[in-house]
Automatic annotation (TrEMBL):
GO molecular function annotation: alkylated DNA binding; DNA-3-methyladenine glycosylase activity; DNA-7-methylguanine glycosylase activity
GO biological process, one term: base-excision repair, AP site formation
Organism: Streptomyces poonensis
Protein name: 3-methyladenine DNA glycosylase
Biased composition (Gly residues): 18-29
Keywords: DNA damage, DNA repair
């Protein structure tokens, strides 16, 4: 859930401690030899790790993300420098991070952006009481910016035209089978998603075994063949990035918005083409559970430049239309591209 993304250095939070080239101490229950690089960072305002990083988790069993009882979030990513694992936790008002693998330094450099340093929550002016109250209750909401396009594009393609349950299963099976073990002392087995060449070599029967139809598999194969060009889109404003993604057959406004929301922290990239979102927005803002995309965009027009944030707040408000029937069965088509 396009608009202009313009980082404002003057508002960027201050880094405390910076990136240390000295390995961090092992800590309780962790051997010193397994320690990684570390960094601390202090956000300017409230920060809720669950709200900020939640959109990066594709289901409760995502092999690239783990949550631990101490409040840490673990992420395994394929960075421009190679695979890396990041652990981040809030200790008081400070974010403490540690990273392992060839991509460790890159992940720590990106830490402020991933935690919303380039996002500007103050730019949002609520015009509905529901959104004002939700923002007050959720002050730690910031929009993550990962700086990685393919990492968000591929699972978004998998989510086209199927239930979330099916898409999460496909992502889990493919990453576990064709990815590589995440570096570092991960709390339980984790995997880094495959590189572009590995995605391109996955046999047709493996896509089928993972529940991915030929159309979605073909879209991913087209994407990984031009992976470098797609990753370049992270340097573009979100609207231009979406336009580049949508040049590829099989990638439409739904998929491109879902991607730049995560890769760019795009505050205005509202998701269109979704079966549920228009009705949720319509019900929350106008009592219209039958709203379509056109009606949703009209209701969100007062939030131009911040429409994705408005939609996030609506979803967080809990004000959703009551169910009128059973959940969709697995295999039901429910999203556009």
């Amino acid at each position: 859930m396009a608009g202009r993304f313009a980082p404002r250095p003057a508002r960027t939070a201050t880094v405390r401690g910076g990136l240390s080239g000295v390995p961090a101490p092992g800590g309780a229950g962790r051997p010193a030899a397994a320690a990684g690089l570390r960094r601390t960072w202090r956000p300017e305002g409230p920060l809720d790790l669950g709200l900020v990083l939640g959109p990066l988790r594709r289901g409760p069993h995502d092999p690239t993300v783990r949550l631990t009882p101490d409040g840490s979030v673990w992420r395994a990513s394929r960075t421009p420098a190679g695979p890396g694992t990041l652990r981040v936790a809030l200790r008081g008002e400070v974010a403490e991070a540690e990273a392992w693998g060839p991509g460790a330094g890159w992940l720590l450099e990106q830490l402020p952006g991933m935690l919303g340093a380039f996002d500007d929550p103050s730019a949002f002016e609520p015009r509905h009481r529901l959104l004002a109250l939700t923002r007050q209750r959720r002050p730690g909401l910031r929009l993550t910016r990962t700086g990685l396009v393919l990492e968000s594009l591929i699972p978004s393609v998998l989510e086209q035209k199927v239930t979330s349950l099916e898409a999460y299963r496909s992502w889990r099976l493919l990453v576990r089978r064709f990815g590589e073990p995440a570096p570092g002392p991960v709390p339980e087995p984790m995997h880094v998603m495959p590189d572009a060449r590995t995605w391109a070599l996955i046999p047709s029967w493996e896509w089928h075994r993972a529940g991915v139809d030929a159309k979605r598999a073909s879209t991913i194969l087209r994407a990984v063949r031009v992976a470098a060009r797609l990753e370049e889109a992270v340097t573009m404003p979100p609207a231009q990035a979406q336009a580049r993604l949508e040049v590829l057959p099989g990638i439409g406004p739904w998929t491109s918005a879902e991607t730049v929301q995560r890769s760019h922290g795009a505050a205005d990239a509202v998701t269109v083409g979704d079966l549920h979102l228009p009705g949720i927005v319509g019900y929350a803002l106008a009592g219209d559970r039958n709203a379509d995309d056109e009606a949703m965009l009209s209701l969100l027009e007062p939030y131009a430049g911040q429409r994705h944030r408005a939609a996030r707040l609506i979803l967080l408000s809990g004000r959703t239309p009551p169910r009128r029937g059973p959940r969709m069965s697995v295999g039901t088509i429910w999203q556009h591209t």
